[in-house]
Design goal:
heterotrimer, B: about 400 residues, 17 helices, C: about 140 residues, mainly alpha, about 0% strand
């Protein structure tokens, strides 16, 4: 990785599809955590609670009210950079989605999914 | 040999899946009002959808990105969300229009209450989707849509003055707002974006790779060119039969009338059958398109081939869209009116979904050697300009003409 | 400023379609009669299918019902509108044409599978269309 890489990676990283090691689609990169100087990507942030901060300032308050408060570990997840295996058209993770808490909405354990007629 | 057959099947599916209720409504009315004068607009729209479809298919095959994946990446979350909300609203209207159209066609075939057929049609579509594999759905409705070829036969049977018909392909504008409204309507009806969003997601479901690029190009060029012929036939037969006697085809049944005039009951049944498959297929495509877009934008698991157990949110949202469409149709709004609004609003939303694809298709860092060449890039940008103009004038024209009501 | 202009344009666009309300003008009457002629033409085509046994009865019936409803709606619209005195006579003639048309469609609806009736309705539809067309000529011919 050369020094230009972080900026390029941020451009190719934000909003990308995330796949786990089984190729399961389990969310998108809703935000990125940067730390240090020069800044380095230290984690991917994923979850509905992060949507409001992606909107124009004026709409954020309303969006927060709809999305609900940020609860780390449930509607906002931190995926450490070490979990990232490979980046091409999508971000591939080393582990399984369930182990990282990702893709809960499509998880058979989800209360909504459990109530669907075909489950 | 097998490869040729496969390509032929793909082309046929594209051809049969090209027409939907928007084309039936706008092209027949355009013919009745302006005889062959708007054929050029059909051609303009057909080339446009072929350009867009070819790019989306190529991006999907090379980068494995469906349309709303590209949109979220290129536009970011905020602007992308605008594109998503607009597309979803248009898709919902489209599903309602197609479902209502399907129910009207069924009442013409089996005289019973309209609302009963709305519900039966929705249930029928769910059953078809539940039982058939992805390719099967596309093929059954695509092949069934080939019955629409009867309109080409009707055109030849009527044997219009082909010189006049050819003259209709020369673009002409007039200061009449109604004429301009129909120019926008006819182009927009051919350019309905859900078809492309559906087929590019379908390409990923069917595991397209760079090897599929030739198939993609043939589907787009040959399939849509042949589809365009069907769309032109609708204008020609209506222009020949309805224009001289001043018929205003305000409902779907009238669309099939020229086929009855030419070939009697057989012609009528072929026409109604073809319309049924076209509109039914479009109901499936547009509802799937709505669910694909939502799931892709939010990063959910998606795909008809993943099945409801592996992609529960995707499947559930598809059913919700279908259900909402049923409610819209049952509210009593005339499906033909819903169609007009769906088509006009679709072109208003189109630039936002077209631009990201155009940018990615031309970006070598994503597409490598398959990026837009000079011709594709030129065509792509020319059509972007066309779409932007249409998007700007569409709503003022809709208001000024009272949705074509004069 | 831009917003005010936009609002004015929007208001104008919204008001434009309603600008013609009030008395039934010669122009509006003309348009009404033209649409009656168009309905009659369509009725003639459907009836000819019935007469030649070249259609499906359900199709003819449902179409006759839909188009008949439109004819009736047109008749009511013409009958309810206040017409200016100069076109009073034409207005009454138009109402009569619309009424006849609605009757013909209801006959077609009842006898959608009957070739004999189909031929009769076809013939009458043609006559009604001629009446409507003559009325259009009168309305537009006398216009200043």
């Amino acid at each position: 990785m050369n020094r230009e890489e972080p900026i390029f990676v941020a451009h190719r990283l934000l909003d990308e599809q995330i796949l786990d090691c089984d190729g399961k689609r389990c969310g998108r990169v809703d935000d990125i955590e940067l730390q240090g100087s020069p800044p380095r990507v230290t984690a991917l942030l994923v979850g509905e609670a992060l949507y409001p901060r992606r909107l124009p300032r004026r709409l954020r308050g309303l969006a927060r009210r709809i999305a609900g408060p940020e609860t780390w570990g449930s509607n906002a997840l931190r995926i450490p950079w070490e979990e990232v295996d490979e980046i091409n058209a999508a971000v591939h993770l080393r582990g399984k989605a369930e182990e990282l808490g990702l893709g809960y909405g499509d998880d058979p354990e989800n209360w909504l999914v459990r109530r669907l007629p075909w489950n | 040999m097998k490869a040729i057959l496969k390509v032929a099947l793909g082309v046929i599916a594209a051809l049969g899946g090209f027409l939907d209720i928007g084309d039936l409504v706008f092209n027949t009315q355009a013919g009745a009002l302006y005889r062959y004068d708007l054929l050029w607009a059909v051609a303009l729209g057909t080339i446009g959808i072929a350009v867009y479809a070819e790019m989306c298919g190529r991006v999907a095959a090379v980068t494995q990105r469906p349309v709303f994946d590209s949109i979220r990446m290129r536009l970011g979350f905020g602007t992308g969300l605008v594109a998503l909300v607009a597309s979803t609203a248009v898709n919902l209207l489209t599903v309602a229009a197609e479902l209502g159209g399907l129910a009207i066609i069924l009442t013409l075939l089996f005289d019973a209450a309209f609302s009963l057929f709305v519900v039966l049609a929705a249930i029928g579509l769910v059953v078809a989707v539940a039982l058939l594999p992805f390719g099967g759905i596309e093929r059954i409705f695509g092949y069934g849509g080939l019955l629409m070829l009867v309109f080409v036969a009707v055109a030849f049977h009527q044997s219009p003055d082909w010189g006049d018909v050819a003259h209709g392909f020369v673009p002409s504008l007039s200061s009449s707002t109604l004429y301009l409204y129909f120019v926008v309507g006819v182009v927009a009806a051919a350019l309905m974006p859900y078809e492309v969003h559906f087929s590019s997601s379908g390409a990923i479901e069917e595991g397209w790779t760079e090897k599929s690029l030739k198939e993609n190009r043939l589907n787009a060029i040959v399939g849509y060119a042949l589809g365009g012929i069907l769309a032109c036939a609708l204008v020609i037969v209506s222009g020949y039969l309805f224009h001289p006697i001043g018929v205003d085809p305000g409902d779907l049944g009238t669309v099939a009338l020229p086929a009855q005039g030419a070939f009697g009951e057989t012609g009528l049944l072929l026409a109604l059958g073809g319309m049924m498959f076209c509109v039914g297929g479009a109901a499936i495509d547009s509802s799937f398109s709505a669910a694909y877009n939502l799931a892709q934008f939010l990063g959910w698991e998606w795909g008809r081939n993943r099945g409801p157990k592996k992609a529960p949110r995707f499947t559930a949202s598809w059913l919700v869209f279908l259900f909402l469409a049923v409610l819209i149709v049952l509210s009593g709004i005339n499906p033909v009116e819903i169609t007009e609004y769906a088509v006009i609003f679709a072109v208003v939303a189109l630039p936002l979904t077209y631009l990201p694809i155009l940018l990615i298709a031309g970006d070598r860092s994503f597409m490598g050697g398959h990026a837009n060449g000079r011709l594709s890039a030129a065509l792509g940008w020319i059509y972007f300009a066309v779409i932007v103009v249409l998007a700007i004038v569409a709503i003022p024209l809709l208001l000024m003409t009272n949705a074509g009501g004069g | 400023m831009a917003r005010r202009v936009a609002a004015a344009i929007l208001a104008a666009a919204l008001l434009l379609p309603t600008a013609g309300c009030g008395d039934l003008s010669r122009d509006e009457l003309n348009r009404g009669v033209e649409s009656l002629s168009a309905l009659a033409a369509q009725g003639e085509l459907i009836a000819s299918g019935v007469a030649r046994d070249a259609t499906k009865a359900t199709y003819a019936r449902v179409m006759a019902k839909t188009l008949g409803g439109q004819a009736e709606h047109e008749a009511e619209k013409l009958a309810d509108a206040e017409s200016s005195p100069e076109v009073k006579e034409e207005r009454n003639a138009a109402v009569q044409v619309a009424g006849e048309l609605a009757d013909l469609f209801s006959e077609l609806q009842t006898f959608a599978g009957d070739e004999h009736h189909g031929a009769l309705v076809q013939k009458h539809m043609g006559e009604v269309k001629e009446q409507a067309d003559a009325l259009v000529v009168r309305l537009s011919g006398e216009a200043p």
